[in-house]
């Protein structure tokens, strides 16, 4: 029995029966808004956050009973600019009021052209980046599927290399790249034509790029030369594992040497999450394809691939999708790009410093070899060593008014992903909750051990 169902039944059974005074018959209790038995068992986050949310603004969500929650979850990285961002909200209201185009497949609309113009002039040109933009569909996994399909077409090779602890989505092509065994079943056939090699740091001090170079240079290694290498510069779901700049540069050099395309999945850690708009900017590498989704649409479903012009080998209509032209997301996404015309990186750095300081204070106070923190920009992880401990922290935070989740192979890393626009006072208040809950959980754990 899942936690939500058990909480609901316990609540109903604890109330004394009520009777209709006219018929003297019991009044049937109303179904709770958390009675979700009609919904598939696949539901996930509602089990961690068993309440009904009703409103949200900035970094605060409110449930139907008026309780407020600070958001360190951020829609798994889809809400980098906060809930109902006023800039996006105003732009959307004006667009809808003017009867702007909502659905358009890949026909030209003013909303699309405005987004393309803004993205080129605000994001690409200042960074001296030259890419074609492909609208792939509404989700991140759509972007990954299109990227590996294009790579295979361009290089005429079926194989792809991904990395340990990588996460790239759940449709079958993207799922094949996702390392976590929990999401796999032999019946899916989802590991076809994919090899997983060790990510940076996976083998401790061993430079895993040297291993990659060795197996690609050895025709008897059993690893065929792939069409592409797919990686996250910061593995979010994998446990906040950060690739070093030198490692990323070596991977890029290996791709160039062996005629392999380099695909960076920037779906969760792009859009400013790392402190720069693209996470790969820190290393100076130039990927052949960049996958973007989540916050690129200002909170609305939207995904794109950035493609090096020389490999834009698609034939017209060769890769399609009914919702690859989400005009409302174009409008919201265009409004969010305005942040990058300001000194937004400095604002992110200010908040990132608060996060790092607060996490280091927790680690130093606990003073346990099993507890550490790591991160970059505004994606940070507090590794508490055990998934069971992290689960207690998440539950305690929820009860105290803070939404937060975990990642890693055993869900042992508490992931901090506050909105890039969160005010420092709210950020500190959220950490006060996290700090207090962690102290309680570790005190309880020590008493039970």
Structure write-up:
- By secondary structure, the chain is of the alpha/beta class.
- It has two domains: 44-77 and 344-448, Aspartate Aminotransferase, domain 1, CATH 3.90.1150.10; 86-341, Type I PLP-dependent aspartate aminotransferase-like (Major domain) (Aspartate Aminotransferase, domain 2), CATH 3.40.640.10.
- The chain is 37% helix and 16% strand.
- The chain has 13 helices and 19 strands.
- The strands form five sheets. It has a seven-stranded mixed sheet.
- The longest helix is centred in the last third of the chain and has 25 residues, at 424-448.
- The two termini are 27 Å apart.
- The model is unreliable at 1-23 and 25-32 (pLDDT under 50).
Keywords:
449 residues; alpha/beta; Aspartate Aminotransferase, domain 1; Aspartate Aminotransferase, domain 2; 2 domains; seven-stranded mixed beta sheet; four-stranded mixed beta sheet; disordered N terminus
Q: How would you write the strand order of the largest sheet? A: 6-14-13-12-9-7-8
Give the CATH architecture of the largest domain.
3-Layer(aba) Sandwich
Shape: globular
**Termini, distance in Å?**
27 Å
Structural category is: alpha/beta
Mean pLDDT: 92
Number of strands: 19
Tally of contiguous helical segments: 13
Give the domain tally. Answer: 2
Share of β-strand residues: 15-25%
- CATH names the topology of the largest domain as Aspartate Aminotransferase, domain 2
Main sheet attributes: strand count, strand direction, barrel closure: 7 strands, mixed
Q: What is the CATH level 1 assignment of the largest domain?
A: Alpha Beta
Output the radius of gyration: 23 Å
CATH superfamily of the largest domain: Type I PLP-dependent aspartate aminotransferase-like (Major domain)
Helix content: 25-40%
- Poorly predicted sequence stretches spanning 5 or more consecutive residues: 1-23, 25-32
């Amino acid at each position: 029995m899942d936690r939500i169902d058990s909480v609901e039944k316990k609540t109903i059974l604890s109330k004394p029966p009520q009777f209709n005074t006219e018929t003297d018959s019991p009044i049937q209790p109303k179904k709770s808004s958390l009675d979700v038995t009609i919904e598939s068992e696949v539901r996930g986050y509602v089990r961690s956050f068993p309440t009904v949310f009703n409103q949200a603004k900035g970094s605060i969500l409110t449930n139907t009973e008026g309780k407020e929650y600070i958001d360190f979850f951020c829609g798994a990285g889809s809400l980098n600019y906060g809930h109902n961002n006023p800039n996006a909200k105003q732009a959307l209201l004006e667009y809808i009021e003017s009867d702007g185009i909502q659905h358009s497949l890949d026909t030209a609309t003013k909303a699309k052209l405005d987004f393309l113009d803004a993205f080129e002039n605000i994001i690409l040109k200042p960074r001296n980046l030259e890419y074609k933009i492909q609208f792939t569909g509404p989700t991140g996994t759509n972007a990954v599927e299109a990227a590996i399909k294009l790579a295979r077409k361009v290089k005429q090779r079926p194989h792809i290399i991904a990395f340990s602890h990588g996460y790239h989505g759940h449709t079958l092509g993207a799922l094949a790249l996702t390392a976590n065994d929990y999401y796999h079943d032999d019946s899916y056939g989802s590991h076809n034509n994919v090899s997983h090699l060790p990510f940076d740091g996976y083998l401790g001090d061993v430079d895993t790029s040297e291993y990659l170079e060795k197996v690609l240079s050895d025709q008897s290694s059993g690893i065929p030369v792939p069409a592409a290498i797919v990686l996250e510069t910061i593995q979010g779901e994998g446990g906040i594992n950060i690739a070093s700049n030198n490692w990323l540069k070596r991977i890029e050099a290996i791709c160039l040497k062996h005629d392999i395309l380099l695909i960076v999945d920037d779906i969760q850690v792009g859009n400013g999450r790392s402190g720069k708009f693209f996470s790969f900017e820190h290393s100076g590498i130039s990927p052949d394809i960049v996958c973007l989704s989540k916050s690129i649409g200002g909170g609305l479903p939207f995904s794109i691939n950035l493609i090096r012009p020389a490999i834009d080998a698609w034939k017209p209509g060769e890769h399609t999708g009914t919702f690859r032209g989400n005009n409302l997301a174009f409008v919201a996404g265009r409004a969010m790009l305005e942040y990058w015309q300001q000194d937004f990186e400095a604002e992110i750095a200010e908040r990132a410093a608060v996060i790092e300081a607060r996490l280091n204070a927790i680690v130093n106070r606990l003073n346990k070899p099993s507890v550490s923190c790591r991160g970059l920009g505004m994606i940070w992880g507090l590794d508490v060593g055990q998934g069971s401990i992290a689960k207690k922290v998440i539950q305690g935070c929820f009860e105290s008014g803070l939404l937060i989740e975990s990642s890693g192979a055993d869900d042992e890393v508490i992931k901090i992903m506050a909105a890039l626009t969160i005010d420092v006072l709210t950020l500190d208040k959220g950490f006060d909750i996290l700090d207090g809950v962690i102290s309680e959980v570790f005190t309880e754990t020590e008493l039970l051990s």
